[in-house]
Amino acid sequence: MSDALVALALAVGLELAMGEPPTTAHPVAWFGRLVGRADRAWSRPRTAGLAVAIALPVLAAGVVVGAVALAGGVHHLVGALAAGTLLFVSTSLRMLLDVARTVIAESEHDPVRARESVRALAGRDATDLSAGEIRSAAVESAAENLADGLVAPLGAFAVLAPVSLSLAAGAATWVKAVNTLDSMLGYPEKPHGTASARLDDAVMWLPARASALLLALVSGRPYALVRAAEWARAPPSPNSGWPMATLSSVLDVRLEKPGVYVLNSSRGLPTVAEARRGVRTVALAGALAYLLAGVFAWS
């Protein structure tokens, strides 16, 4: 088995076993604290924001490249284990799917609690959300996180793994760092986050559309992409609409963020059964992403 496949197998095993490392031991949380220091008023916010968007992801990736290279210098399998561990912390899917399943179950029996739980998934005011709107938020978040949390960093790793395991791990880390910057700084009221938001838009262009394709393939409904193309531009993001609209088409349900966008407006909001099917579809798409990454790593 190649070192790249060893690394990928370890990342998958850790994802299945743990979902996420503890926050105190999570490198992404450490990086988030570093980003937090840059989240302040600047005299020249756009210039400072551009420097942050360039420097911090490069710094994170450089640390990872060096760490994996050093580990590989001890023994190639040690390098593979280091790369797999770092790929694991750069990707995320299981924990979000678990939270989505919990929110969907609570929406049926305890909407008040579901409104509290859904805040961990979606950045929206949940105070007045109906049960269907809560389930919609859970399904939307699962679809979007497939692209942000898994396909983007995993794809970066898979492309470079045949070339260099240390560069592959660094690429996955760089993508995760860009996404983290956007999630923390990329808001209209933060001019120092404009560069981070634009960089994330560019980085996520292909993974978002690849995620939509994965969702269509695992559902056996490739035509879903045709319908999704009609709705994908409804959300403000140039990318997140693609996996969300595709899943909306696959499930034939309406997905809606009240006051912001509606996907597949002629259908009803997801039932509990439909929402659960949506989460299963995302999980299958994630499994296919890992499988395809293994094919790339093998080559």
Q: In a few lines, what is going on in this structure?
A:
It contains twelve helices and two strands; from the N terminus they run H-H-H-H-H-H-H-H-H-H-H-E-E-H. It is 73% helix and 2% strand.
Q: Any overview of this molecule?
A:
- With 299 residues, the chain is mainly alpha-helical.
- The protein has one domain.
- The chain has twelve helices and two strands, in the order H-H-H-H-H-H-H-H-H-H-H-E-E-H.
- A two-stranded antiparallel ribbon has the order 1-2.
- A hairpin with a 3-residue loop joins strand 1 and strand 2.
- Helix 2 runs antiparallel to helix 3 and helix 3 packs across helix 9.
- It is globular, with a radius of gyration of 19 Å.
- It starts with a helix and ends with a helix.
- The mean pLDDT is 93.
How can the largest sheet be summarized? 2 strands, antiparallel
Strand percentage lies at under 5%
Radius of gyration: 19 Å
Helix/sheet category: mainly alpha
Overall pLDDT score: 93
Q: How many beta-strand segments?
A: 2
Tell me roughly what share of residues is in helical segments: over 70%
Shape from CA axes?
A: globular
Provide the low-confidence segments as ranges: none
User: Helical stretch count?
Assistant: 12
Spatial strand arrangement across the major sheet: 1-2
Family: Belongs to the CobD/CbiB family.
Protein name: Probable cobalamin biosynthesis protein CobD
Subcellular location: Cell membrane
Transmembrane segments: 48-70, 77-97, 279-298
